[in-house]
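Task: sequence in, structure out. Protein: Polysaccharide biosynthesis protein CapD-like.
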Amino acid sequence: MGSVRGPHDASPSVPVSLLGRLARTRPALVLPLQDTVLLTAALVLSLLFRYDGAVPSDAWAGLLSFVPLAIAVFVGVNAAAGVYGHLWRYASVVEARRVLVAGGAATLIMVAIDLVPRFVPLTVALVSGLVATMFVGLARFQTRLVSFRRRSEQAEADTGMRVLVIGAGRTGAELIRQMQTHGHTGLLPVAVLDNDARTWGRLLSGVRVLGGLSELPRLLAELDVHQIVLADPETPTAVVERIAGLADDSGVVLRVLPGGDELVRSGLRLQDVRDLRIDDLLGREPVGTDLVRIASMLQGRRVLVTGAGGSIGSEICRQVARCAPERLVLLDHDETHLHDALATLPPTAVPELVDIRDAERLNRAFARHRPDVVFHAAAHKHVPMLETAPSEAVMTNVVGTGNVVAAAAAVDVPSLVLISTDKAVRPSSVMGASKSVAEDLVLTSARNSGRAWCGVRFGNVLGSRGSVIPTFSRQIQAGGPVTVTDARMTRYFMTIPEAVQLVLQAAAMSRGGELFMLEMGQPVSIIDLAHRMIRLSGRRPGTDVEIRISGTRPGEKLHEELSIPEEGARPTEHPSVLRLDPVLPSDRALAARVDLLRRLADAEDGAGVRAALLERNEAAEVAPQPNFVVPMGPLSPDSPVEPAAAGMAPLGPLHGQAFDDHRGTSPLITAAQSAGELTTMNGNRA
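Result:
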């Protein structure tokens, strides 16, 4: 590093301005003088070699005439090429290429000058130019080598951060080079390990490959290693866990490179090497997406994202922004989350502080922006919370989705994507059942209108607000206990960026009416996840941090599903995206169900909402309230009722057992029953 000195640091007998001029002119004087000496030496050696040491007197005379011309050419070309304008202690391949190009050009000019008259043999002109170029390169890079050695010694003396690199590929070599170049980081690579036996004993950027991973326990002790850097982002999870365990046992920090997609975006930088995270241990393979196809769907289009301040919505906005949309509209009812999402986006992003439950204001927002693509991510999602507030689940997840569907249909949005959840499959919770209705609303409208609207269903995402990962992290930081509801519980997991990549991929593949399911891999044991996270924090499960079984909460399942057999999961052109054939209700049944749910929610009849949401077996229909229109879009040609003619929207199904359990306690259901308006699908009174 260069020193920074003020005027008071200079000798009082020498003017500061003179010191500055000398500092600036030193390379301009010393380096050309150095090149003059090197070229002269090269000419003399070449001449001696040409005549086997017995140089005739006329050849010496010719050389004396040629030297001034050669020096003028060599130094002049180097100056024109910018060879004298570099800090050689930080020289790289760029500077080496510059020296070679300048030296080659100078050599050709020297040969051309020597053609007529012939000062020295042409071979002397040619060889001396090449030798002088080699001398100059060695001289310049000697400065860099000395500087590097000093920085390395200083780094070891200052911090002693001795690093063992795992991975002898190109990535490992680049990391070592950056550690060596940036001595101020205090990282000193001392050894490399790789399971490829062909690399053993070789030098990687000057650091020797000492064997395979089996040597790790021994080398951690013998080399006094303080940090391990895993230089291969695609290392299998089992291997990462083994390395993490050895590092933990030895009190060594394990750091890793970011995932493949992140590396592609930012390039390999030393500052991107990060601590190990729990998602590095969940066995997810890097996702490949058709970026060209996704960009063609979004570039130059008007894109609107509901729930844009949430975990999924904000990541959708970030990834969409990279595809250069004409306009990106962030719609959310939470000003803080909306503000935070905007902070990560270009200034062209447009905020809309709107609640999807407010149909009038939502319609105005859609009319203002007239989006080409809508990602509907707004939803209430926390299962236990919604068990205590079922009416709120309906108003946002059902009525709010209906409002989005109606607003999108009103401005003829060509493409709409619903973000759904595995909890919508055979739902046992209010949240899951409300999202199942949301799926029906979007996909039924797509079926009737022919628009390219679809739904995308996936499991848990890592790190979303209020999810298990941040909860466990908070409990571990507090010293425990870590609470697991049931030792048998499993969940599917995916990182937020990965989920959003696949959502965009599914949207690009949609032709309308599809329900896509993301391939989530194998379910993860929640208690095993707790063990891993505790170990990752450097503590021991059960000893340093207690794991407590708290019992399942209302609405929770032990194991989630991503589809039911009737939906017939089929592959698509992307291996991580499956297509389902959704089992949809009739327009009449769906509209009836939405209407009943809204009336129950408006009445704050939580028990009635829960019963109406979680109905499963035989179906019933409730007569409609007059003049209430559910925002469903056009009915299909075979619909049994025309809303315009009837003056009302058809109402939908209640399934038997949940309905039977609740009909005596809900005023709305009891009133419908007493009036004879409530009938089963076969026409019998309920």
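Confidence is low (pLDDT under 50) at residues 1-26, 262-266, 616-664, 672-686.
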